Amino acid sequence: MLNNMKVVVYYLVLLVFIALLTGFLLQPHPDGMSMNAMISISLLLVVYVVAMSLVGEGKSVDEREIAHRYSANRIALIAGTIVLSVGVLYQLFTHNLDYWLLTGLIVINLAKILSLIYSNYRH
After folding, report:
1. At which of 59, 80, 105 does a domain end?
2. Per residue in 86-104, pLDDT tens?
3. Which domain holds residue 17?
4. pLDDT per position as a tens digit, 54-76
5. Has this prediction a pTM greater than 0.85?
6. Where are the transmembrane segments (predicted)?
7. What pairs with residue 30 in β-bridges?
């Protein structure tokens, strides 16, 4: 019961983050964002990253819960890889490559490969 409540709280944090970020991004900014807006978005992003990294990290009760967590993690990995890949491809075609997208894509795949190697040697 407590674990389900924690997941609900994390999803509410996600919705608040999306709403606030959308509000900041939809405001007309003739000369870019102000320092207060950048700091606010940065703080919201930190809260979001911490909250989302802890979703479902409680103690697993049964095999079904473990399978659900595995499935959610796999879908998140695939979605992140697709989004970063599309971003890299788009920026390659516009000749304006942001190396943070490329670095994020490399880190995601490198972490997956290293975790697979570690898992094979551990078990």
Report:
1. 59
2. 888 888 888 887 888 888 8
3. 1-59
4. 665 666 677 887 787 788 888 88
5. no
6. 7-27, 33-55, 75-93, 99-118
7. 32
